[in-house]
Amino acid sequence: KTNVVGIIQQIHPPSTFQRKDGTPGKVRRLQLEDDTGRITVVLWNQKADELGDIERGDYIQIMGARVKEGRDSQVELQVESKTQIQILKKKPTYLISPSASPIRSPN
Length: 107
Known about the structure:
With 107 residues, the protein is mainly β. 4% of the residues lie in helices and 50% in strands. It has one helix at residues 47-50, and strands at residues 2-11, 15-18, 24-34, 37-44, 59-69, 75-79, 84-88. A five-stranded mixed barrel has the order 1-3-4-6-5. A hairpin with a 2-residue loop joins β3 and β4 (37-44). The longest helix is centred in the middle third of the chain and has 4 residues, at 47-50.
């Protein structure tokens, strides 16, 4: 699990899908950036709606995200039910949280 703080660079609308067991699911992707790089954040199910009307340029803090290799072999952050997300009202005085992991590719 990891914590990050960054600025939203790109937001995709939520999409719904059907799981193998027939139940509905929801997913939303966004691109988050800090001074060390950019990463895809994948929000699942209720977390896909939790950010409401976020916009490009908003700052967020994510706590407890799971790190995973994504579809394109790049590192992604998976935001699930226990992950906490906070929308920051203004630009933080630090762009890298003291407890946050830097956003960078493993290469």
